[in-house]
Design goal:
The protein is mainly α and 413 residues long.
């Protein structure tokens, strides 16, 4: 019945697409549980809830310690205690440990399978997810829409677009209806690829099927326009979102990029912290179009409104200035971040370092690399060292650039 899915998935190189933010516990779906086999002992229920609370916080040691105590005083584990321990490991993306717990469950149920599939999907582990999906079917457990959504999420993470239609056919064959999560996953997949036409087609299908087009959907669609370099459509969608239009319809008119129109739209809107990602995305669009004045004007208007920014917004503004070679202003924004108590992160430094690196300004890049660890206590990431290597290359210092790269290959780096 579901073999079309299994036959499709053959080992192949994984892509590098990310889908940060998509993963929720199945606890609300499963409820706290089947009746504990401890005759509803108040003591057992209290300990079980303690395990659940530890798992929610990713406190593995606390969960294990409590589980050991449960066994020590003569109680046995029920299916939900296994699930909670899996969640504790999953919180830290330790999928092998979560899978090991799963394998110790005498009779895994739909909730255990769905959790592991969701974890595999979150981490983009298509092969493992497909194998577990097949095992679930072979064990006579009918996959629900959560299981299919998790499989689809893994595909999105791996960028395996060719397998999407197969999953949709299987969902339809099973008599299930795609949910908003199903469609949002696909919109995000196309957004990461910069395929705005495919993303728009998914949004149109959502409207046709009566599925709510949420702010999550629209932010992904905005991401698609930005990655596709379609500034007009990005700004049109942005202004419609400010007007609380949730239809995903994009207008097309010539003067769409006029900053006056955008500021006017912003001025008549109510601001929420959930909108920060949207604002950062449109500033990224301006950055890629080398329209730093637009990004600065939007930033100023938002600041005047009293909105409290996060690092994503600041990083987008820094990126806009770097791309327009306004390095002094980029450093000013970094300082403003410190004053606001945020402090630049590794991505912030990478953006500024790259701006100096393209001109071969090795001294400035090295200074920033030293500063990030000494002043801001930020651990460098590979992008920071890439900027250092690029600075050497632009100066014709190829052996030094090679040395930077070779050092990254050393154990512990």
């Amino acid at each position: 019945m579901h073999w079309g899915v299994h036959a499709l998935f053959r080992p192949r190189r994984r892509g590098t697409l990310g889908l940060d933010g998509y993963f929720s516990s199945l606890r609300s779906f499963a409820g706290y549980g089947d009746q504990p086999r401890q005759r509803d002992s108040d003591e057992f229920l209290k300990l079980a809830k303690r395990v659940r609370d530890f798992s929610k916080r990713g406190n593995i040691n606390g969960a294990i310690s409590t589980l050991k105590h449960i066994k020590k005083i003569g109680y046995s584990w029920n299916s939900h205690l296994f699930l909670h321990l899996m969640e504790a490991y999953g919180y830290h993306k330790r999928w092998k440990d979560a899978l090991n717990v799963f394998r110790q469950i005498p009779t895994p149920n739909i909730y255990h399978y769905s959790y592991m599939l969701a974890l595999f999907g979150r981490l983009g582990k298509t092969r493992e997810g497909t194998s577990l999906f097949k095992e679930m079917v072979n064990n006579g457990i009918e996959p629900g829409i959560i299981a299919y959504n998790s499989l689809l999420l893994g595909i999105a993470k791996a960028g395996e677009v060719d397998k999407v239609d197969v999953i949709f056919r299987e969902i339809k064959k099973s008599g299930l209806a795609p949910t908003g999560i199903t469609y949002n996953t696909l919109v995000h997949l196309h957004a990461r690829r910069g395929d705005s036409k495919a993303a728009m087609e998914i949004v149109r299908k959502m409207r046709t099927q009566g599925v709510d087009v949420t702010s999550t959907t629209l932010n992904s669609l905005l991401h698609a326009f930005v990655n596709d370099g379609n500034l007009d459509a990005a700004v049109s969608l942005f202004t419609s979102m400010l007007g609380n239009r949730q239809d995903g319809i994009v207008e097309d008119f010539a003067d769409i990029v006029r900053i006056e129109a955008i500021v006017e739209a912003v001025s008549s809107s109510s601001f929420e912290s959930s909108s920060l990602h949207t604002f950062a995305m449109i500033m990224t669009a301006f950055a890629r179009a080398r329209m730093v004045d637009h990004a600065e004007a939007l930033f100023t208007r938002l600041k005047e409104s009293g909105l409290i920014f996060n690092r994503v917004v600041y990083n987008a503004l820094i990126d806009a200035n770097v791309k327009s070679n306004r390095m002094d202003r980029a450093l000013e924004v970094m300082e403003e971040m410190r004053i606001c108590g945020l402090g630049p992160n590794a991505t912030t430094y990478a953006n500024v370092m790259l701006g100096y690196a393209v001109f071969g300004d090795f001294k400035s890049v090295q200074h920033l690399l030293d500063e990030m660890t000494t002043r801001d206590s930020v651990e460098p990431i590979i992008s920071n060292y890439n900027a250092l290597a690029l600075a050497h290359v632009r100066r014709g210092e190829f052996s030094e650039a090679r040395e930077v790269i070779e050092n990254l290959k050393m154990p512990g780096n």
